[in-house]
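Re: the request from the purification team.
They wanted to know what the chain is likely to look like in 3D before they choose a buffer screen. I agreed to run a prediction and write the result into the notebook, where they can find it.
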Amino acid sequence: MRVLGVDPGLTRCGVGVVEGVAGRPLTMVGVGVVRTPADAELGLRLVAVEQGIEAWLDEYRPECVAVERVFSQHNVRTVMGTAQASAVAMLCAARRGIPVALHTPSEVKAAVTGSGRADKAQVGAMVTRLLRLDAPPKPADAADALALAICHIWRAPAQNRLQQAVALHTAQARKAPRAPMTSKGRTA
């Protein structure tokens, strides 16, 4: 499985491609950052993020895109920019029919380090170790994008099985005969 991880941001949007399957050594295929000037108009920054992600999709042809789920912070402006960049990444993938998975920061940290409260240095160190790199990717946004891709590769098989089980249960529930109701709303 080839996954493009996206750590959304308006100034620095981390991108990283990882290939492999759960339980086997993973390979980093590419890593980088899509940058936009902080003083540029918002619309132009979003276009730059879109063009950057489109270029990554063209070059690396991922089977899935894993995006960090936006979470509430104290700085609403930062959250808005992150959410907008996240939406651009999801739109780019959806336009191509590529599945998108959202993972929370604590979910990614727990998957990669074993602790949902790990700091950026710990995430970078584990990404370096797991992908057998010489040094942690810089800036941290790039390492976070790789961590997202790793998290998705490791969690996708279990998530797929869970989704299939829910779909099967839902289908069976729809087919099951229902007991007749009494005049008081109880089943007979």
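For the purification team: The chain has a mean pLDDT of 90.
Please add any questions underneath this entry.
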